[in-house]
Structure formats: structure tokens, C-alpha cells
Amino acid sequence: MTEAVFAETIAKDQRVEPRDWMPDGYRKTMIRQIAQHAHSEIIGMQPEGEWITRAPSLRRKAILLAKVQDEAGHGLYLYSAAETLGADRGDLTRRLIEGRQKYSSIFNYPTLSFADVGVIGWLVDGAAICNQVPLCRSSFGPYARAMIRICKEESFHQRQGYELLMTMMGGTQAQRDMVQDAVNRWWWPSLMMFGPPDDQSPNSAQSMAWKIKRHTNDELRQRYVDMSVPQAEALGVTLPDPDLSWNDERGHWDFGAIDWSELQRVISGDGPCNALRIENRRRADSDGAWVREAAAAHAARHQEVAAP
Ligand code: BYC
């Protein structure tokens, strides 16, 4: 495959596959985005995972356990997709724990009450779905295909979060207050998940041209706000933005200014939980080293025995 064939594949909306010729920049961008996405899933297990032992009932514990396991699964498909591009999984993990590769800003905030589990399902998984459904049509085949299953599971995750919040909103005043407090803390960070505004997004133009991204950061953020406002109303919570108002002319909800300095701070390592998240990941990596070594030794021995 040559450059012309690559260009034609993109123009015709077909998929680029791992053995096809692709520009170095395309390969680099795909590895960067897929690795960041995989890291987000794996680090994203921590904030909710902290509540597994403290879930208020066996039913809630079983649901949460299954959700966090799904996130591990998403991370693994995504690392596999990155490997099809020549990336090495161990190297990607090293880059993460050495702070050389990013993961989503949202997972650097603490989960202070069980209502946070519901709000992560509703708002964080809701934002993830908005962002990831278009990625099912992303131009790189293994990423697009991984995204189909991931989106199905994310949509289930979102419903479990909403159902949990509905239950809490039908409970005591203290439970309703807990939900409102969690919404107040997670709303603005969830808007930041979509990335910097379009005029400050260095990667968007090229990623849109290569059809890796199908919509800009601001387009998806607006879609998410439009989707979330009626859901908040149905739930009976207030979104913490006094500037939120329906704009008849635009046919969209207007919303207040986002504090972009907060996103920059969190991305550059200075969010409330960055150090803790990375320290936990580093410990899990070193605690698991013997398992990886044993598995590699077993595979090598197996190959030796199988060789004629
Ligand atoms: N946090 O030029 P831009 C989940 C980075 S997991 C941190 O707009 P791009 C879930 C950006 O990567 C959700 N970094 O970039 C799991 C870029 O970095 P470089 C994860 C951010 O790539 C468990 C730089 O800033 N989802 O759902 O065109 C439980 C400039 O930005 C953030 C994905 O990863 C951020 N918020 O667009 C529950 C989706 N925003 O160039 C839920 C896949 C931007 O310095 N990724 N950056 O390395 C994407 O769709 C795109 O990569 C983004 C950014 C829209 C995130």
C-alpha cells in the first residue's frame, strides 16, 4: 500500500488496517490516542474501585465489581489495538507511570461518597459515550472495532449510574444532598473530558482530516450538555452553572465559561489525586512483575518443547 492508497482509503471512508502503509504521523497519533485511552480505562478503575468494599448492599457491590472489571477489559482491548501498530505494552505502562503519557483528567478527582459512583456512571460514562460513539467510525480498524463493544458496555454503565442516582433521589434528604453535592463536584470536570476548546486543540485539524476524530472537542461538548440538561431535570438535581440557558436561535443550551487553567493544571500532574493514582499504578505494576516474568518463562519453555 502506498501513500495514494492510504489517501484513497481515508477519502472513501474505509478502514486502515495494521499491515497497511500509513504515514508515520498517523501511526504516532493513533498510538498516542489509543494509549491515552487505554491508560484512562486502567487508571479509571481506581476512583470507583475504592468503593467496592464500602458498597451499601450486596447488589450494589456486585454491580460495581462488574463495572470496574469491564473497565479493565476496555484497557486490555485498547492496549492490544496499540500493539497492532507496533507499540509495546510494557513500554506504554512505563511511559504512563513515568508521567510521559497522559490519561484522562477526570480520574484525578476524589470519590467522596457513594453518590460519586452514580454520578461517575451518569456524567463521566455519559461524556465517554458522547466522545466514543463517533470513534466507532474512526479510520483505524482495530480501534473502531474495539470501540463498538466498549460503547455498548459504557451505555450499560451509564444506565446503572442513573438508576443508582434515581434510587438515592427517592430516598432521604441526606441522600438527595449527597447526590447534589456529587453533581456539583463532577459537572465541570466532566465538561473538560472533551479536551481544550477547538482554537486551542493542536491535534484536532489533522485528526479530523485523517478521520480519526469525526467531531471537534467543542461540538461533542455541546452535544453532551444538550443531552445532560433534560436528564438532570428528570433526576431532580441542579447543574452548578447559573449561565445554563436554552438558546432558541442556536437550538442548543448555552453554558458558562470553563476554567481552562484547571484542565491544564490537572493534565500537567497537579490535580487533587494525580500522585495517588500514579503511585497505585506503579505499585500494581511492580507487584505484578513476577506474574509477567513467570508467564514469559512459561511461554518460552512451551515454545522450546514444541519446537522440533
Ligand atoms: N485529559 O489536541 P487535543 C472512560 C490532551 S475513559 C487529559 O484536543 P486530541 C472511562 C490530549 O490528549 C475516557 N489529557 O487532543 C473509564 C493532547 O495530548 P498530547 C478516555 C487531555 O487527542 C473508566 C493535548 O491534551 N477517553 O471513559 O485531538 C471509568 C491536546 O488536546 C484531555 C478517551 O481517551 C483530558 N481531558 O483530543 C469510566 C477518548 N483533553 O498531544 C469511564 C479518546 C485533551 O499533549 N480520545 N488532552 O499528547 C479522544 O477522543 C481525544 O484524544 C481527546 C483529545 C478528545 C481526549
Explain this structure.
- A two-stranded antiparallel sheet has the order 1-2.
- The chain has a single domain (3-306), classed as Ferritin.
- The longest helix is centred in the middle third of the chain and has 29 residues, at 141-169.
- It has 13 helices and 2 strands, in the order H-H-H-H-H-H-H-H-H-H-E-E-H-H-H.
- The protein has helices at 3-11, 24-43, 45-49, 58-83, 89-97, 115-132, 141-169, 173-192, 204-209, 217-235, 260-270, 274-287, 289-306; strands spanning 245-247, 252-254.
- It is globular.
- It is an all-alpha fold and 308 residues long.
- Helices cover 66% and strands 2% of the residues.
- Helix 6 (115-132) runs antiparallel to helix 7 (141-169) and helix 6 (115-132) runs parallel beside helix 8 (173-192).
- The site of benzoyl coenzyme A has 28 residues, from helix 2, helix 6 and helix 9.
- This is Ring-1,2-phenylacetyl-CoA epoxidase subunit PaaA.
- One of its GO terms (biological process) is phenylacetate catabolic process.
- Its EC number is 1.14.13.149.
- One of its GO terms (molecular function) is phenylacetyl-CoA 1,2-epoxidase activity.
- InterPro entries: Aromatic_CoA_ox/epox, Ferritin-like, Ferritin-like_SF, PaaA, PaaA_PaaC.
